[in-house]
Structure formats: C-alpha cells, structure tokens
Amino acid sequence: MSQLSLRLPLRRLLGTLLLCVVTLSLSAQAQQPTPQTMIPAPPQLAASSWILMDANSGEVLVEHNADERLPPASLTKLMTAYLVERELDQGNIAMEDPVTISERAWRTGGSKMFVEVGTQVSIHDLLYGIIIQSGNDASVAVAEHLAGGERPFADLMNQHATRLGMHNTNFVNATGLPDADHYSSARDMALLSRYIINDYPEHYAVYSERYFTYNDIRQPNRNRLLWRDPSVDGLKTGHTSEAGYCLVASAERDGMRLISVVMGTASEEARAQETQKLLSYGFRYYETLKVYEADEVVATPRIWGGEVDELRLGVDGALWATVPRARNEGLNARLSLPDAINAPVAAGERVGTLQVVLGDEVVAERPLVALEPVEQGGLFKRLLDAIRQFISGFFS
Fold it and tell me: Is there a contact between 163 and 199 (Cβ–Cβ < 8 Å)?
C-alpha cells in the first residue's frame, strides 16, 4: 500500500484520489521542519479531581483523577437544566408554562430560589433559579413537572447520562443533596457541559448572568470568575461538606472555547483560583483550529458503475483539532479509502476515515461520508466501467 503527499493550503484537500490511502498536507509549509513548541507541565491544583477540555474538538488537555467518582453537589443541576433545555428545544414545554409549586419542593433544604408553596412559577423563572441561584426548590419543582416526581426524574437523568457517555455518574435526585449513591466525575461533568454548550446554544447565555431576582430577593451567581474574567461565561458551582467546593467553568478567547472542571477544593476562593490556573494554561499553550467546515468536500475519488464518475466525500460536521500553539504547520490529513468504490452509494453513507495528524500523533479522527447519493448508471455505463476497472486494476 503506497502513500502520496501533496502540498496544499490549510483546510483544502484537492485532486482525485486513486490510492486507497492518501496523506495530504494541510499547510504549504508542512514539508519543512516543524519548530517544537515548549510546553511546561500542567499546573497541579489543590483539588481532588480536575480536567480541562476543548469544547469544540473534545480534546482533553489536562486531567487528574478525572474518572474518580465523587459527590457532585449542585453540579448535578447541570443535568437538571439540560433536561429542561432539551424539553424546550423539542417543543414539549415553553418558557411561559406555569408550574405549580408543591409542598415538597417548597420544603427542600439547602440553597433556595424562595418559591412559595401553591403558587405557579414559569419554566423561565425556574430555569434561571436553577442555574443562577442554584435553587433546590426550583430543581424539585421542574422534576415533578417533567416526570411526576424526583425519583422518576432521576431515572431520566441517568438515561441521558448513559446516552451522553457519562460512565461514572449516577443520580438519585435533581439537586445534588448528599446521597451515597449520587456521584459523578470531572470527565463526565465536562462532557455534559460540552453538550449544554453545543446542543442548546440559545439557552447558554443564562449561565453567564450574574444576578437573578425572584420574589423580590436578588441573589448573585456564585461563579466568581464571571466578575473577574470577561472570557468566562458559565457554567455552575457546587458545594456540600462531602463534595467540598466545585466549579465547572467555560471561557472563550479568540474563537477557542475551553471547559474546566475542578472538584473538591477547600473554599469558594480556592475553586475560582484553581479554575483560573487551568484556563490560563490551556489558552496560553494550545489553540483549536477548524480544519474542515461541515459538508465541505474533502476528496473526490473515482466511483465505478455510477451515473457520475466522482464521489464527493466530506465530514458530517465541522472538524476541529486542538494542537500546541505554533505547531499547525505540521498538520496533515490522512485519508483511508477502500481500493474500489462501487455505486450505488447513499448520501451520508460512510466510505472511509479521515485522520488529522501532527507528526505521528492523531489529533482528530472522523468518518468520511458521501455528501450526495450516487445511483447506479445504465447497463452500458456499468459494463464500460467494469472494463475500465479491470484494466486499472491490472496495470496497478
């Protein structure tokens, strides 16, 4: 199996592919020696567990005990809010829908939105109360409204946790109040936050709000970084005596968005400072590049027996790669394709694999899919292509 290197501009792969594996340069300078970027060891934090993830590529830049099962405290409410946002997006509920406050919701201890028993509160206000005020009463109210009770709502939370790949998470309530069977991990919270940001961007602005007033009670967002760092715009704090002080934060600078999770620090100030260390490290030493747009044509290999002779291939979504700063000159795209592609091919059908590599390291990988269908050609076209394919295979 042979390989071919082509010198091409960043993000463009041109030319017909006649080999089953083709390596394509993503920079005109890729053939030159790549300067090495000096990256120090990541910071060590005064926390039980932490992780730093790129929101676009999903690349993990820093982690420590990221899969350890720990009490998440009010970080739990990220899933509670996510399910509300999902129901809103699917049209099952609306922001103005009224929710009747039960005595159980009203009596729930811990942090409160201060709803009153028997009153009706809108989904809008409850969502703001969950995210900004960390209201346990609001969390129980939406759990009862959406699932008929907190236990069945926790079952929904766990089903979605499984769907999202949160393998070290189990919820027993919507609030994060302590329970031996209620746990999550830094990695799982980062994954959930990535879905919140990318799946429902129209609701994400709520997480950056500094204050929310309900029932004439004005409460601040407990995320101190919203006041200190203008690039920080979310997500959620948490604290119990069992969990310590926790913070899931996200920040965006120059088109790069990072998600940090810090669990088990000693104070509100400590969780803010340790989070700032992670974010500063990631933005200082890494960058995230959009290598391909969604549905951009990556390659046009020969297809045999079809109505047309070329198959347009691409990725089904934008492809991002997170790399050390000043190293993008060494990015290459490596395409793996079958020896022969025969019609018919359906739109969206997987045909091969696209890997983005930096040196010997694969920094991103996605399926190559057909961007449009190619039906079989007529009888004469299929016979002619069969002869051409035989001759091509004979000489190769």
Answer: no
Q: How far is CA 182 from CA 28, 49, 102, in A?
A: 52, 17, 23
Distance CA 66, CA 337 (A): 36
CB 343 within 8 A of CB 375: yes
Which residue carries 């509100």 as its tokens? Answer: 268
> Which residue is catalytic, options 25, 27, 49, 74?
74
Parallel, antiparallel or unpaired: strands 120-122 and 350-358? unpaired
What does DSSP assign to residue 119? Answer: -
Please give the helix or strand (H or E) that residue 291 lies within, else none.
strand 286-292
Q: Active site residue: 27, 77, 185, 236, which one?
A: 77
Taking 3-state DSSP, the helix, strand and coil percentages for the chain, each rounded to the nearest 5, stand at 30, 30, 40
Least confident segment among 133-137, 340-344, 392-396:
392-396
Asked if residue 157 has pLDDT above 90, the reply is: yes
Q: How confident is the model at residue 277 (pLDDT cuts 50, 70, 90)?
A: very high
DSSP 92: S
Length, in residues, of the chain: 396
Q: Is 74 a catalytic residue?
A: yes
The answer to whether residues 277 and 262 touch, using CB atoms and an 8 Å cutoff, is no
Q: Provide the token pair at 375.
A: 């039906």
Q: Identity (one letter) of the amino acid at 64?
A: H
Beta pairing class for 21-25 and 5-6: parallel
Is a pLDDT exceeding 70 seen at residue 23?
no
Residue 392 makes CB contacts below 8 A (sequence gap 6+) with none
CA 283 to each of CA 55, 249, 250, 322, 329: distance values in angstroms, whole numbers, following the listed order: 13, 14, 12, 11, 19
The amino acid occupying position 174 is A
Catalytic residue among 134, 185, 250, 260: 134
Within 242-267, residue ranges assigned H as helices are none
Cis ω for the linkage preceding 278 (within 30 of 0): no
Closest by CA position to 240, among listed 49, 15, 75: 75
Burial state string for 252-272 with b = 16 or more CB within 10 A and e = fewer than 16:
beeebbbbbbbbbbeeeebbb
CA 299 to chain centre: 26
